[in-house]
Specification:
The structure holds two protein chains of two kinds. Chain A is built from no helices and eleven strands. Chain A is mostly beta strands. In chain A, the strands form two sheets. In chain A, strands 2, 4, 5, 6, 9, 10 and 11 form a seven-stranded mixed beta sheet that branches. In chain A, strands 1-3-8-7 form a four-stranded antiparallel beta sheet, with no helix packed on it. Chain B is mainly β. Helices cover 0% and strands 49% of the residues of chain B. Chain B contains no helices and eleven strands. In chain B, strands 2, 4, 5, 6, 9, 10 and 11 form a seven-stranded mixed beta sheet that branches. In chain B, strands 1-3-8-7 form a four-stranded antiparallel beta sheet, with no helix packed on it. Chain B starts with a strand and ends with a strand. Chains A and B meet through strand 4, strand 5, strand 9 and strand 10 of A and strand 5 and strand 10 of B.
Amino acid sequence: EIVLTQSPATLSLSPGERATLSCRASQSVSSYLAWYQQKPGQAPRLLIYDASNRATGIPARFSGSGSGTDFTLTISSLEPEDFAVYYCQQRSNWPPLGSTFGPGTKVDIK
Amino acid sequence: EVQLLESGGGLVQPGGSLRLSCAASGFTFSSYAMSWVRQAPGKGLEWVSAISGSGGSTYYADSVKGRFTISRDNSKNTLYLQMNSLRAEDTAVYYCAKDRGSGSCSICYYFDYWGQGTLVTVSS
């Protein structure tokens, strides 16, 4: 099973600052990686898929990069609504056996 | 507007069974794979099971294999999760999630719409 590790566990920043979140896979996942945002009491929201493609309706301040085992989610300038928990997720390509999530990074207000 | 509405959660004793349902609307249900994803209280996300659009292919996390069964009724636009031999560690909010879909993957495991979740509590 592929294990995802996210760092840091918590990121304390101020609105307007740049956020850089890391996700590392225990073995290569090619570009089959997504990022989700989750706020308290809400379902997750898809932000990025295939490592760098923004999902429908996602603001341009969110960007993803990486391939293989190392991935990054960048929020260029934090808005008040961006303080949340962020999860990375990998998927198996073929056969489509399943998926795993990382443990999450909490972005909170400094 | 895409809507996913889960139901069927509740309190069940260890070793018991429960069936979750997810009523879908706002998209062509049979054209998309669907998954169940759970989240234990205060914890992260765990993918549980997936099913192809036709229902012909199903996949499970090792933690639930042999105990849970995913199915769908495309005539009713409804997804199901039959959960047997429940354990305390199955306690979680269970979300149904729509697969984003793509021409390049039968099940893409990218979830672009989620329900609000239904809480399953396994306790004596």
